[in-house]
Amino acid sequence: MQFDAVVVGGGFAGLTAANHIAMEGYRPIVLEAGIDEKYMCNSRVSTGALHVGFRNPEDPADQLFENIMSETDGTARKDIAQTLAENSQATINWMRDEGCEFMQHPRRASGMPMMVPGREMKAGLDWENSGPNKFLLALADKLEERGGQLRRGARVSGLVHNDGQVCGVYTEAGEKIEAIAVVIADGGFQADPDLVGRHITLSPEKLRQRNTQTGRGDGLKMAVAIGAETIGLDKFYGHVLSRDAMMNEKLWPYPQLDVVCAKSIVVTPDGRRFADEGQGGVYFTNAIAALDDPLSATAVFDHTVWEDAKVADIVPPNPSLEQNGGTVFEAASLAELAGLAGLDPVGLLDTVTEYNDSIRTGGVCGLSPTRNTEKFPAHLIENAPYYAIPLCAGITVTSGGLAVDGSAQVLSKSGEVISGLYAAGSVVGGLEGGPRVGYVGGLIKAFGIGRIAGRAIAAKLANKCIKMP
Ligand SMILES: Cc1cc2nc3c(=O)[nH]c(=O)nc-3n(C[C@H](O)[C@H](O)[C@H](O)COP(=O)(O)OP(=O)(O)OC[C@H]3O[C@@H](n4cnc5c(N)ncnc54)[C@H](O)[C@@H]3O)c2cc1C
């Protein structure tokens, strides 16, 4: 079977790339492992907030580029960061042209567009009536109208690679499908315990899969098998969740406990802090995953912070956490709280005393581990009752992945383009991560790089060069 392009994965990245190829009159096929009409993928269940490192994607391109570089402490690849930033406005314009509507995100700083209809800001998964599900269905229909194909139930297992040129794929069923270009858009490797265990945590089974478990690293593995370079596989985008979310489906993807943690101390059973709570939720989720036992972290805070949690974060954890079966220990003293939460009382008391003293004397940055106060000021733990919440790390999507150039072409270990091979969406590395685990945005990576890849392939097919955007 021959097509102009084969796209591996029918999430937003794959469908955006395929539609851009079909819009230019070429014939792409999207091979999607999921079987159902509404097959699961992260795109379908996403909240639908479009941003570039939490900035409005319609901000000027130079500001978006600087934001990516500063969020990642300069570790992002400049070429793809630059093209993504330059294409951000055009990407949003294209989404609007395709019928996607936006509203203002109800719980984020002004200027963050969210796909309409917006999800209800409540605990648990909620996707059927959401903007992302509707837009994904619309993009699949548009692809067919434009002469492309979406084939479900087709899991790709390998690349056809001849004389240094990728020219098709093999499916798990043994079929060979040839094409001039291949786009890997399979959504990352967060649901592959082997890769997660090798790169992210000693105990992959102790992370909560805060996703649809469809990103199994197939694309990464098949590209690496032909010599592709990878970047930053050790970091992921995710959020801190109640430990009960490991068993309780109502406690993921929301409520997150990011803001509670950033206003608390988070300790291991010895009552000691282990990471900088002030760096925020994505950083802290990675820190929990990196513990020898990722199910051993507990947030400790006082009544003031718990009252604040009635309005803090996307789905306020107070009272939604307890209403949905999550554990919140409450006690009149820290010693009693330590007993309830299984924490060492002496260690906890020492930690809280040192923490409070350092806040009072202005020396909180001198703590070990240090406590950054730029985004989240440190709060005294002094106003009883005291609370403790057992935590876990919720992994949403991996940050690292395949190295690509500014046209989304996959690079080899020697830095050369692998001819015919492109990547888009969560499988792309080099845009996120760094020491503070910068997050650029899963949806802009999907729509933005999907568009870049699709346009670059259409230009290749037309045997001409185009200037982005
Ligand atoms: C609960 C939740 C909320 C989120 N909210 C936001 C948000 O508000 N804003 C934001 O920016 N990001 C958000 N994200 C992240 C964002 O949804 C993803 O990063 C993005 O949708 C990824 O798109 P993708 O196309 O790369 O991958 P996916 O949407 O995961 O699609 C990949 C597809 O590839 C298929 N596939 C996998 N392997 C194969 C194979 N071997 N052969 C064929 N097909 C294969 C899968 O079945 C899947 O359908 C959220 C994620 C989750 C889970």
Give a summary of the structure in a few sentences.
The chain has 469 residues and is α/β, with parallel strands linked by helices. It contains 14 helices and 18 strands.
Commentary on this structure:
By secondary structure, the chain is of the alpha/beta class. It has 14 helices and 18 strands. Strands 1, 2, 5, 6, 7, 8, 17 and 18 form an 8-stranded mixed β-sheet that branches. Strands 9, 11, 12, 13, 14 and 15 form a 6-stranded mixed β-sheet that branches. A hairpin with a 2-residue loop joins strand 6 and strand 7. Helix 3 crosses helix 4. The longest helix is centred in the first third of the chain and has 20 residues.
Topology readout:
Layout: E1 2-8, H1 12-23, E2 28-32, H2 42-45, H3 61-71, H4 78-97, E3 102-104, E4 113-115, H5 131-145, E5 149-152, E6 156-162, E7 165-171, E8 176-184, H6 193-199, E9 208-209, H7 218-224, E10 230-231, E11 236-242, H8 258-262, E12 265-267, H9 281-289, E13 298-302, H10 303-308, H11 317-323, E14 329-331, H12 334-341, H13 345-360, E15 386-398, E16 401-402, E17 409-411, E18 417-423, H14 442-461
Parallel strand pairs: 1-2, 1-8, 2-5, 8-18, 9-15
Antiparallel strand pairs: 3-4, 6-7, 7-8, 10-16, 11-15, 12-13, 13-15, 14-15, 17-18
Helix pairs in contact: 1-5, 1-14, 3-4, 4-14, 12-13
The protein binds flavin-adenine dinucleotide (FAD).
Residues 8-14, 31-34, 39, 41-43, 45-49, 155-156, 185-187, 211, 214-216, 218, 253, 396-397, 425-426, 441-443, 446 line the site of flavin-adenine dinucleotide.
